[in-house]
Specification:
Blueprint (H helix, E strand, L loop, with lengths): L2 H17 L2 E6 L5 H13 L3 E5 L1 H9 L16 E6 L4 H11 L6 E7 L2 E4 L4 H6 L3 H39 L3
Antiparallel strand pairs: 1-3, 1-4, 2-3, 4-5
Amino acid sequence: MRKEDKSLIIAQLGELLKQYPHFYLVDVEGMDAGQTSDLRRKCFQTDLKMVVVKNTLLQKALDNLEADYSPLYGTLKGTTAVVFTQVANAPAKLIKDLKGKKWAKPELKAAYAEEGCYVGADQLDVLCAIKSKNEVIAEIVALLQSPAKNVVSALQSGANTIHGVLKTLGEKPE
């Protein structure tokens, strides 16, 4: 590969790394064409971008960025696919789903999610548990609505009780 081509690939990887806040390094070595095609299709359906890269070029692209990605460098061996995402836990859920279907691969090597490095396949459950921005907002809204719902419910039940007592007293013969 010519030096100009390598420079272009490093620049493109750098742009993708800036565009997406989270990425996963996935081992896809040994996957057949059908499985690879199925994985790419599933990535596309869940708004993930998967790119198979040379490890040295990825490391150079990571070196050119401001953040410290050095904990990930030890995993850059073998065949590596980078899965870029806007939602931190989406690739982890996809990998876990595929593992549930008895696939040997893809296997998580490492991930950079929520400004932290996660190294090793044993981190898959931790990554699945990360909440997306929308999930956190939904939880906060539910927590904020809960006290208001309780107050409204108490006021409505109290009004019904008072109304029932007044109605009973009004119907009572004197």
